[in-house]
Amino acid sequence: MVIAVAVMAVGCAGLVGSTLPRSAQDDCERSGGVWRPALSYCEVQSGSSPI
Q1: pLDDT of residue 7
Q2: CA 25/CA 41 separation, integer angstroms
Q3: If we measure between CA atoms, which residue out of 45, 26, 46 comes closest to residue 37?
Q4: What is the CB-side half-sphere exposure of residue 29 using CA atoms within 13 A?
Q5: Distance CA 47, CA 51 (A)
Q6: How far apart are CA 43 and CA 45, in angstroms?
Q7: Which of 25, 30, 26 is nearest to 40 (CA)?
Q8: Which of 1, 11, 26, 41 could be bridged to 36 by S-S, CB 3.0 to 4.6 A?
């Protein structure tokens, strides 16, 4: 039992330090936008759709 807990703790320890901070560009692209680096601007299509 103690060995199983120790193995799980070691496996999770590597995940803590591997998280990288997200940039505005990452957030923009994840939301479906297009990042414009010259303006540091996220361009997003409007939500309207022709019916």
Answers
A1: 47
A2: 8
A3: 26
A4: 9
A5: 13
A6: 7
A7: 25
A8: 41
Alpha helices in 1-51 (DSSP H): 2-16, 24-30
Question: Maximum Cα–Cα distance for the chain, whole Å?
Answer: 62
- E strand or H helix at 39, and its extent? none
| Contact criterion met (CB below 8 Å) for 36 and 25 | no
The answer to whether the predicted template modeling score (pTM) of the entire model surpasses 0.85 is no
Closest CA to 32 of 21, 43, 19, 16: 43
Residue 36 and residue 28: Cα distance in Å, rounded? 10
